[in-house]
Amino acid sequence: MIVSYVIKRIFYMIPILFGVSLLVFSMIYLIPGDPARMMLGQSASPEAVQQLRDKLGFNDPFIIQYGAWLLDVLHGDLGTSITMRIPVTAFLIPKLLNTLILAAGGLIICVIIGIGVGIAAALRKYTWFDRIIMFMAQFGANAPAFWLAITLMWLFSIKLGWLPSSGMYDVRTGDTFTGLLEHLILPAFATATVSLAVIARLTRSSLIDVLNAEFIKTFRANGISESKIISKHAFRNILPPLINMIGLQIGYLLGGALFVEVVFNWPGIGSQIYASITSQDLPMVQAGVLFIAISFVVVNLINDVFIASLNPRLKN
Amino acid sequence: MERDIIVVSRELSISKHRVNRIKSNTFRQSIRVFSKDRLAVIGAVIVLVSILSAVFAPFIAPYAPNIGDGSKRLLPIGTPGHILGLDEQGRDILSRLIYGGRLSLLSAIIPITFMFAISLALGLIAGYFTRLGEVIMRILDVLFAFPTALLAIAISAIIGSGLTTIMLSISIVMLPYMTRVVYTSTMNEKNKEYVEAAKALGATKFEILFKEILPNVLTDIIVYTTTLMGTTIVFASGLSFIGLGIQPPDADWGRMVTGGISVLTQGAPHIATIPGLVILIVATAFNWVGDGLQSALDPYKRTQ
Question: Nearest residue on chain B to A16, judged by CA atoms?
Answer without folding.
Answer: B142
